[in-house]
Each structure stands twice: as structure tokens, then as C-alpha cells.
Amino acid sequence: MTANRAANPAVVDSADIVVVGAGILGLAVAWALGQALGSGGGRSVLVVDRHPPSTQATARAAALLTRARGDAATAALVRDTYAAIEALEEELEEDLGLRRVGTLHVAASAARVESLRTLVGDSADPVEWLDGEGAARLAPCLSAEAVERAAFMPLDGFIDPVRLADAYRRSARRAGIRISIGLSVQAIRVEHGRVTGLETGQGFIAAPLVVNAAGAWAAGLAWSAGVGLPQAPVRSQYWITEPRPDLFPRDLPVLVMPDAGAYARPELGALLFGLRGRRSVALDPARLPVDTAGLDLGDSDGGLETLEEGWRGLARLCPPLLRAGIAHYVSGLSTYTADGRFVLGPAPEVEGLFMATGCCGAGIAASGGIGQAVAAAVLGMPVPVEMSRFAPGRLGAVDPLAPALRDACAATRSGKTSG
Ligand SMILES: Cc1cc2nc3c(=O)[nH]c(=O)nc-3n(C[C@H](O)[C@H](O)[C@H](O)COP(=O)(O)OP(=O)(O)OC[C@H]3O[C@@H](n4cnc5c(N)ncnc54)[C@H](O)[C@@H]3O)c2cc1C
């Protein structure tokens, strides 16, 4: 993390709008900018990344596109992703492989039924309530006796996250947006309260408008411009069983099981399941390596503690898990905020600086909506959703390096009950 300087290195490139990060959020913003501007739209857009597109958090996502979010604004962003998938399929004339298996939200106690009603209650999407028998008919790996009630949302699905991100990328390229890989941004340059561009390892990129979509590194990058984001990099993790199509049919719905702190979905005849655990691991944004591939999470135990604690609770709901071996463990860094909401839109302290981050483990699900909302904000167009709840400055002045912030963000992940 570099303090902002008024140095004047050689200008190596320039654009009207530069997006930092070619993960799914940066690419979705680029796609939406391309849609809004059209080819030859009069404004140049450049996306920069030090790694090839979608090789960090995006490549590791379970990619549940869960609609039930507990608030209308977030649910609208997810709904926009489904619309984006449809539009991309039409434009690119290909099937993006959306698996529309539905989501079964499972409640194992009367108290949980009440919170489930709150989660799905105001949904604008269809919801079907089931008893234990009905839930086990839809998802034969569930124990009918262990389920009190369940809410099925048939329009939900999951998708290959890299494939979706690549579709955003290709559509953006068609609209004339440039993507420059191998460029590491060291700092955002601010002069007289306005963004002027980016300092990179190769020189200065001049730009009056910058979108920070740098994922786990976004808080560090924003801090170089003196902007404190209320988020921290937090480990997310899941496991995949050996292939057992006899136990886990390919058309199983996505299962969200807050009583077990778990979610699951079919993965080519195996079961992919995530456990949230009592204690999530949050990292210091100032000490992140530049690549999370093979990242050693310091005090991490490779997820074993969470697996040991969570396994039995999950197997009570899903007994066939006891008969399947575990074949894979996947972990990566999402960003979580202290209040569980995204960080989107203009930074109040710096004119011309915008955020598309704070994904709270839902960046794939909300990518289409986030891309469109942030692009509209950057272009000064009407923003399609109510953005104040996601405003970067909503929690006041924040020290992004404070351990207390990291603890609060880790607790948000551990307490998550949606998909
Ligand atoms: C295990 C796991 C499971 C998940 N499951 C789901 C799920 O089921 N559903 C869901 O919606 N989401 C899920 N997520 C979350 C999802 O992966 C993220 O929300 C999403 O990928 C965030 O995208 P991003 O573009 O912000 O970040 P990233 O994909 O990490 O992209 C950020 C990019 O910025 C680049 N960058 C950063 N700093 C710089 C710099 N200084 N200079 C140049 N480039 C820079 C990086 O190289 C990177 O390519 C999961 C995440 C994990 C880890």
C-alpha cells in the first residue's frame, strides 16, 4: 500500500474511465459501460489488471445466484444478473450454462422458520413452502425428519463464474473497451480532491474517472487515495465430495441450510458444500500477497477446524454425506463489510473515484446489477437501484487497517444465513 504522492512519472496510457480489476465485478462494470456507451460511444474505457482475467476470487466462487437476500435493493441487483445472462446469451449467441435447479432454503427449527419467512417474505420471485417430506422429495439427500419447513425458489440457479465473467469481457471488447493485463496499480493519484489517474509499475495512466474493482485489494488501493473502505478480505471455503451420483443427483436444487451454517449444490454427481464456521479468518489488507493462488492464510488450518465443527450438524440434515469421501477443498478471499452490504458508487472524499467492491460473498450473484449501477453512477445517468445503502461512506470515517474492523467483517461472514 503506497501513500498518495504528487510524483510525476511518464504517462504511459490514458482513458476517460479506467477500471482497476478484471475479476467479475470489474468486467461487469466494463460490460455495462459498453452497453451504455455503445461502440464509438465517445468515451474511452480501459480495464487494467496485473493478472489474467478472473484468476482470483472469481475463479474460486461456488457461484450460487441466490435471489432471496432479505432486502429489496440487493435482490434487485441479483435479478439484474439473471437479465444480464439472458442478454449476453442473446448477444453472443451461446448458452452460458446457467443451471436453473432452484434453491431450497431449509429451516430445521421453528425459530428458523420465522427468520426464513423474513428472508423470502418480500421476494418478488415465486416461493413454494414445503414440509419435510416435500423438501426430501425435491432433494432426496435431505432428512425429512430434520426439516421443519423449507422454502423453494424455482427460478434460482448457479453458473460457472469464469464463463459468466468471460461473457462480460467479450461483450465489453465488442463495444470497444480495452483490457490491459500485466499492469499492477500501485496508487490512485489525487490532486486537489480529484482523481487524476493511476501510478503503475510501468508509469502513469491518466484518467479523470477511476472505478476500484480490485476485490480483496480494493481497501488497500482506496487507502492510497486516503479513502477508508468498511471492508476486509475474509476467507471463504467449500469442499467437494467424491462423485456419488447415487447420493447426489445432478439436478439437486441448491440447498441453503442456516441451522448448519451451510450451503450445498450439485457438482457433476458430487456435492459441493460450504460451511461458514464460528470464526472466519480475516486478513490485514496491508499485508496481502498480490496473488491468492496457493495463499497461506497465516493462522489458517486449511479449514479443518470448521469442517470438524460443522460436519455433524450438516450430516444431520444431509445424512448421505456420512457415506461420501471428500475429494477437494477450495478456499479464497472474498471481501466482507461490517454491515453485510456491498460498497458501491462514488467515494465522497475524492471526486471521480468510484467503488465496485465489498462483495460479501455475493459478487457473482449481483454482478450484473452491480455493473449496471456503478456504470450509471460513473456516467452520471439515473442509477437503477437505491444505492444509498451501499454508499462507500455510509459507516463514517473508517480505518481499513484496524483489527476491530477485520473482526466485524469476519463476524458478518460467520453470521450469514442467505446463499
Ligand atoms: C470459496 C468462495 C466461494 C464463493 N461463492 C460465491 C457464491 O456462491 N456466489 C457468489 O455470488 N459469490 C461467491 N463468492 C464471492 C465471489 O467470488 C466474489 O464476490 C467475486 O469473485 C468478486 O469479484 P471481484 O471482481 O471483486 O474480485 P476478484 O475476482 O478477486 O478480482 C479482483 C481483480 O483485481 C485485480 N487487482 C487487485 N489489485 C490490483 C492492482 N493493484 N493492480 C492491478 N490489478 C489489481 C486482481 O488481480 C483481480 O484480478 C465466493 C468466493 C469464494 C472465495
Automatic annotation (TrEMBL):
Domain FAD dependent oxidoreductase: 16-376
Gene Ontology molecular-function annotations: oxidoreductase activity
GO cellular component: cytoplasm
Residues spanning the signal sequence: none
InterPro entries to which the protein is assigned, alphabetical: FAD-dep_OxRdtase, FAD/NAD-bd_sf
Keyword annotations of the record: Oxidoreductase
Protein name in UniProt: 4-methylaminobutanoate oxidase (Formaldehyde-forming)
